[in-house]
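Researcher: Sit down with what I've pasted below and flag anything odd:
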Amino acid sequence: MGRRPARCYRYCKDKPYIKSRFCRGVPDPKIRIYDVGNKGADVDLFPLCVHLMSDEKEQISAECLEAARIVVNKFMATQVGRDGFHMRIRAHPFHVLRINKMLSCAGADRLQTGMRHAFGKPIGLIARVRIGQILMSIRTREGDKAHAIEACRRAGYKIPGRQKICIAKEWGFTKFTKDEYQLYKAQGRLINQGAHATWRRAHGLLKKAGENALLSYELERKSIIEKNAREKAAEEKAAAIKAAKEAAAAYQEAMKKRAQKK
């Protein structure tokens, strides 16, 4: 008996049914790799992030996710190189599918039980997604924006239902916008975690924050230094404006005296 089409399990009907000690014998999902490309690239290298989002409440099979991963990896590697992007599958197949197998051979009427004990046996795994949920994300350089959008468009053909392609406001895979990321990085408030960055805590116990703690007096010291720098810059600007005005007044006075002599 061949694999049952995923269109038979497209819609979310019942409660999630996951692998457990009560649900054994579940086959492994078809998708085994969730990160492709230059997954070790520094967070500063890829500021652009493009999302493929689901526009339906549905179920997506592991085979669909694997097909989408393959097509994105192939297209992006061809266009920008294997080190020019990082793609991450954000939907994970945990929901177990069941099938009540029916015999179709001669004399099957005496062997099968029909709809008695029709709970079924596990045959595969599927991901349950909601409207607006991110299916996959691609981070790359700003110049490769068109290639990332095209890769997401091609991946949409491998997935049932409707999808939307969104350009993220955040910097890469971080939770900070691009302006916030540059500001916090200049202030030393970020911890580089490789593919993403986290916030340096300025509150709580020191033993919990560890070496990444941001002490309050550091913030006060930085704010004082920044304030002094701003005041100094303002004073220099005011002095320059005053000197320019004095020079202009002296020039006008000299021109008047010269005109009177004539």
Q: What stands out?
A: The chain has a mean pLDDT of 89. The longest strand covers residues 121-129. The first helix runs from residue 62 to 80. The CA atoms of residues 234 and 240 lie 10 Å apart.
